[in-house]
Write a structure and sequence with these properties.
By secondary structure, the protein is an alpha/beta fold. The chain has helices spanning about 15-25, 40-50, 65-80, 100-130, 150-170, 215-225, 235-245, 250-260, 260-265; strands at about 5-10, 30-35, 55-60, 85, 90-95, 135, 175-180, 190-195, 200, 230-235. Helix 1 (about 15-25) links the parallel strand 1 (about 5-10) and strand 2.
Length: about 270
Amino acid sequence: MFKDKVVVVTGSVQGIGKRTAEMLAEKGAKVVVNSRTKTKVDATVEEFSQKGFDVLGLTGDVSNYDFCEELKTQTVAKFGRIDYLINNAGLAAKGSISDSEANVFEKMYAVNVLGSLYPTMALLPEIKQTKGGILFISSMAGIIGLPSYAAYSGTKRSIVSLAESIKNELVDDEVYVGVNYPGFTENDAQKEILSPSGEANVMVKREDVKVEPLDKTVNKIIRQIEKRKFRSYSSYKGRALQTMYRLFPTLSLSILKMNRRKIMDMQ
Ligand SMILES: NC(=O)c1ccc[n+]([C@@H]2O[C@H](COP(=O)([O-])OP(=O)(O)OC[C@H]3O[C@@H](n4cnc5c(N)ncnc54)[C@H](OP(=O)(O)O)[C@@H]3O)[C@@H](O)[C@H]2O)c1
């Protein structure tokens, strides 16, 4: 299905995004990798090229609309078309609302929300022509608002609403739109998290929660696009949480309240 398709994966020089681009390239896709850090983009292009993949690297910030137009122009110049966009670039943040500075919310809404919306707007005319698709990467934290993760939960839930709106707008264009909810997934050693003051710190390896293997999460993402499913979860926990919250919202929030300390103390 992905043979010779052109797939743009934002934030794809490490973690889930990089492995997604790599697995798609193994299936024959031409991939565009991106991040804000030129050295990381160049290293990923070098690594993928050595594996024989057809790859284009574009350094830039997806929360900047002009860069997203550039992303489209350069992708079309190199590959002639765009089939799929995976809005993967995202920031993590943790801190109580009382401790957090406004700049944390500004950064989080810029990258996680506008950074998914702007590539969608810029690339959509091309995706309409190929009747391809757009996948938004949310999180289990986008299903229910977690204490101490207001910026993360708020932004990840916001892109679910965006995906729902866009999905129905694009039915007649036969453009696929989906939203994926990864659970805790093994981290890249360089993954960062914003502190309440807005400083980016390398995230410590998670020892206090069970994490999903990276390939399991990525396989779910790829299967979802292949099946053109609107929602998909990397583990049964995501599906269970979604079902529970839909059917029993008050009970779900009470259980969350009982477990608040555990969540707030998570690394
Ligand atoms: N890992 C998990 O457990 C988990 C769970 C649920 C959801 N998710 C979601 O899955 C996605 C990937 O997660 P991950 O853990 O693989 O993240 P990650 O290791 O932090 O990688 C994110 C990538 O996005 C890039 N990026 C950040 N801001 C950007 C921007 N404005 N423009 C372009 N690139 C940008 C970063 O590179 P630069 O800093 O060089 O730009 C980085 O390469 C995120 O949306 C995340 O919220 C992850």
